[in-house]
User: Fold this.
Amino acid sequence: MNLLCVAAGIAAVVAWSHQVLAASEPPPGAASCSGCHSPEATAASPVVRLYGRDAGAIATAMAGFRDGSLPATVMARIAKGFSDDESRAIAAWLAAQK
Amino acid sequence: MGISHRINRRRFLGAGAATVTALAFPPPAFAQGAARVVVIGGGFGGASCARALKQIDPKLQVTLVEQNRTFTACPFSNNVIAGLRSIEQQQFGYDGIAADGVTLVAQAATAVDGKARTVGLADGTSLGYDRLVLSPGVDLRFDALQGYDEAAALKMPHAWKAGEQTLLLRKQLEAMDDGGLVVIAAPANPFRCPPGPYERACLIAHYLKTKKPRSKLIILDAKDTFSKQRLFQNAWKELYPDMIEWISLSQGGKVNAVDPATNTLITDFGNHTAQVANVIPPQRAGRIAAIAGATDNTGWCAIDPVTFESRSAPNIHIIGDACLAGAMPKSAFSANSQAKACASAVAALIAGRSPAAPKLINTCYSLAAPGYGISVAGVYVPKNGVFADVEGAGGVSPADAPADFRAREADYAQSWFATTTAQVFG
Assistant:
């Protein structure tokens, strides 16, 4: 019972912080992503949608583009402009968007 | 309770503004209600900025001043010239932006009074603002090349603003006999879309190769180097051997004068008489920027890279092709990136917060042929008062990339256009 309450409390806090993050100003660099990555869920595009995607997956992809382990056309050149911390902040913000 | 809270807040802000009056020009709207932002220019910069401002703070009164009811996009207009695309695919309206709560004013802005904070409109009325954003794009300089004025542009099109000029150049190419000479005159830096003249050479050559294979194309250039140079030159050799000739500045490529009566381009080294002459003249910031006192002696607008505020005209922010953005090229992608960062900065300043330093991205695709895309990308941060490249990032597509890489970049180019135009105008 107590555990359930704690779990519900944590879930509420997580949901709340998620909403706060979603509504927050994008961290430096994040607003440029939507130039190519459509925020629209319905858009038919060869470029993946980033909004709502798993933050860990985005940050891992950025690290892979940066060190060359993940092949890319333009993302290899762009990812090198962002540190791990910057990539993680951008990834968290993108993940929180609907 | 909500209402009384708002009234109290207004009273508080009103009192604050009154206190400030003694020291400086007050932000007038704070005493009246929601802050007013006027954006002049409904292209990739201005339309994005107006929309982003409303998204960041729906309470802002945002007005977009744009005299044209239809926007005709420049990116991909080289495909229209080459007969690969219709002009209608380049055209967008402003209904989506109006639906977001942006007030549209379909008039030319003719005056800016920075002290009174008003914008004068062509019909004699005016709009008050707390912050003004200028995204006027470029004006073509009809005083720079002897003989090249607006009348000459009807004979020797620039096609550097998409629309009638784009279609005129296409018609001239269609009317040209096989074996004709096409000349493109490219300007010195800075100018709108640095890779544009060279993409245009490619796509015109693609048209000629397909329809009029005995024809030739010469680029007369006022520069010795240009954007994506190696990639373009490799593509010319590979796709259009013996068709395209590039004459650099040091080889005598700089056009000084033109004679529209004979379609002749005149350089220090000689004359070139073309069947089709595409003259891309030097450019400067759109006229309203000079009227607002936001241009310097280069004809462009120096800005603070954190706020995009003019170095010379307070409370006026400049984005897109008109601003001097350091290492950032004058592209639609840059304008869109800058617009979103500028909207954040303007909203922060209005709310009394200090804007965070932005980090911006640019990606520009060019097509060397259908299915053959190349790109340049960059990441930028404010440094020493301008946008500087983040070291180690950015650059052009690899020179030795396989065909499927070029094909993917061509797909991404199309996708970028669809995504960005949907975001800005959809």
